[in-house]
Write a structure and sequence with these properties.
By secondary structure, the chain is α/β, with parallel strands linked by helices. It has helices spanning about 1-25, 35-40, 40-50, 65-75, 120, 130-135, 135-145, 160-170, 215-229, and strands at about 25-30, 55-60, 80, 90-105, 125-130, 155-160, 175-180, 190-195, 200-210. One of its GO terms (cellular component) is protein-DNA complex.
Amino acid sequence: MQQAINILELSEQAKQLARKAMEQQVQLIIGFVPCAEVNILPDVLSQLRLQLPASSIELVSVATTQQEEKLLKGEIDVGFMRHPIISDRLNYRVVYREPLMVVMPVDHPLSKELQLKPHHLDGENFIGTDPAHSGALYQIVTDYLAESHSAPHIVQAATNILVTMNLVGMGLGISIVPHYVCHFQSSNVVFRPLPVSAPQIELLMVWHRENDTPALAQMIDLVEEKSAA
């Protein structure tokens, strides 16, 4: 009988130790858009795992327009997203800037040009972006073309970059995308740069100012070090 009691006590102690270990485990939930997946997360995550080997890091692909709500609700600890940010309860840093590129079908007449200016796009069939899903990209492209007096013919508004690439690859039109999309180049499309005077698009690292998750501070430091390098 005493042996059975001892076994039960040891079992309970083991459960308590397991619960303590779970409580002490650092957890970090990261929301991101594809640009961060290409340009920020690979280096930062490898370093973060070295610093926090017992940490639980979860990556969640979240559109820019959904990240602010998830940050405010505590569903993610840090988000990598585009402008705009509305809430004053969120802190952010600009961690990456990249130029915009014109993407077109591989056999498009404009593919013969080494660089494209806004007037080249005037009247061309154009795959736009849906402002409800694209964050700042829609407004940046719209303003740039308007200021350049270029009026392409919008044939469709894509809800994400993969849709844009598929529509361009099928020959429905050309588009303007962030530079990171060049990493996903296929045999159906080609990319051409815009003039250096064209606007760039920013990637932000955003977090709730009241979030005191230990791993978050280390994540912020690592990303800022990478951005400053």
